[in-house]
Specification:
mainly alpha; 12 helices; single chain; 4 strands
């Protein structure tokens, strides 16, 4: 199928299948750039505390460093004690970096757990396939992106250091602490600019990957139709199911006609069967209704079971239009229905006599 024929946006089912196969838009470069940038910010604001803590640990460790030869057990104990002292100092940095990496992944792809991408595929062991991937268009694009990143970041670092040339040259012959402070500030500025540039490039790369993924997921009109059939069911099958449901509903309705007290007709197009049971409801209930063929069938069943049939054109139309099966009749029809029921009850008493 030609790529230009894939003009339709992917359906939700198509997107879900792609996620289960591990085909999601995820940029490793964006994760790395985000972790690097946020890690630098964490170091920037927790650096003084971290420095003081490490300084205190170093002083204490050197002050209590054994002056005699010590055994392997003593060395292990010393290292464990040193790690327990250093751990709380670097814990904010480690937790911050881990949290940033987790959040970055979740923002990109959400929560995805799929084993399909881990399944064994024989073509992955084929050296010819590997060589073909090395010289594919995708590999060329990745190489160009890497060269572009190195070029941009290298240019930014070069221009920054060149602008600080006189300041760096002035460190010659200066004090040790002043030189360390200036070099530290310059290093921070260089790293921050490089990390920011890397983050911007990675964000652009992520948007490009997202565009490529959306393009690869596009579908043809026929694929969309087939997918809708799979998701919602074949329209012909659904039509047959609805028809079967209607037939079952009509069958249940016809079974209620012999239990009705009266059938109101108009006389040929509409028929409504009413049942009044004061113990079940305060008003008569419509147990069956229909028009044309169904109305004819209701009348036939009523005649077979000696259910009274009363002709009232307006009432039959009103009941058929305003009352659903199983519902009570509305209050504005109480009087008309009451007259019919009274007539039917009076007629049945005469017949019984």
């Amino acid at each position: 199928m030609a790529l230009e024929d894939r003009t339709e946006a992917p359906t939700q089912r198509r997107r879900q299948d792609a996620r289960e196969e591990g085909r999601v838009c995820r940029s490793v470069e964006l994760n790395s750039a985000t972790i690097l940038l946020c890690g630098l910010l964490v170091i920037k604001y927790t650096g003084p505390m971290l420095t003081q803590r490490l300084k205190a640990v170093a002083i204490e460790s050197l002050a209590h460093f054994p002056s005699h030869d010590f055994s392997i057990a003593e060395a292990n104990s010393y290292l464990v004690r040193l790690l327990l002292q250093v751990g709380p100092a670097i814990m904010p940095l480690l937790l911050g970096v881990a949290l940033v990496g987790f959040v970055s992944n979740v923002i990109q792809v959400g929560f995805v757990f799929s084993t399909k991408s881990l399944a064994f595929k024989g073509n992955r062991l084929n050296p010819l396939s590997g060589i073909a991937r090395m010289f594919s268009m995708q590999a060329a694009v990745e190489l160009l992106k890497s060269i572009a990143k190195i070029s941009v970041i290298g240019f930014l670092v070069y221009t920054f250091i060149r602008s600080k040339y006189s300041e760096i040259a002035g460190l010659v012959g200066g004090s040790y602490f002043t030189s360390c402070r200036v070099i530290g500030d310059l290093t921070w500025s260089v790293l921050l600019r490089a990390a920011t540039a890397l983050f911007i490039i990675a964000a652009l790369d992520y948007m490009f990957q997202r565009y490529q993924l959306e393009k690869s997921l596009k579908m043809t009109k026929q694929e969309v139709k087939d997918d809708m059939k799979k998701s919602e069911g074949d329209p012909m099958v659904k039509g047959r199911i609805r028809q079967r449901q209607r037939e079952m509903s009509q069958r249940r309705m016809m079974q209620e006609v012999p239990k009705a007290d009266v059938v109101v007709v108009n006389p040929t197009h509409y028929a409504v069967a009413l049942k009044y049971d004061p113990e079940r409801s305060p008003a008569p209930i419509v147990v069956a209704k229909g028009c044309d063929f169904i109305a004819k069938r209701i009348r036939e069943i009523a005649e077979e079971n000696n259910v009274p049939i009363v002709e009232n054109i307006q009432l039959a139309r009103a009941l058929h239009a305003s009352v659903e099966i199983g519902d009570e009749i509305p209050a504005d029809l109480y009087h008309a229905v009451a007259e019919i029921l009274a007539y039917v009850y009076k007629l049945s008493k005469k017949l019984a006599a």
